Amino acid sequence: MRWKDRVTQLYFSILLMNEQLAQNDIRKTTLQSAADKAAAAFKNGNALRSNVDELQAEVASAEMTASNSGKTGKPMYRCWASSLAKRWMKTRNWRYPHRN
């Protein structure tokens, strides 16, 4: 695989991971809101305890997904991107453009 293809693949992988993390944040917010509503409905006698427990389990699952991605995903791709970029710049004798 050529370096340009690798850099392109890495770039789009990073974009995809960032969007997946953002989507998971939205999912957590939605599930927490639903869990709060279900807890209030249970308190008023309009919902079952199992409904509240199920939603709380989903919230916990979404939080675990976010924490796993945040701890291993971002640092991993940053390290990989940095390493790949350094190797690519060395082989191409590339320099950063000067800014005014």
Protein model, in words:
With 100 residues, this protein is an all-alpha fold. The protein is built from two helices and no strands. It has a domain at 22-88. Helix 1 runs antiparallel to helix 2 (49-92). The chain is rod-shaped and about 70 Å long.
What is this structure, in a nutshell?
The protein has 100 residues and is mainly α.
Q: How is this fold's topology laid out?
A:
Layout: H1 3-43, H2 49-92
Helix pairs in contact: 1-2
Radius of gyration: 22 Å
Number of strands: 0
Low-pLDDT regions: none
The largest sheet is:
none
Features:
100 residues; mainly alpha; 2 helices; rod-shaped
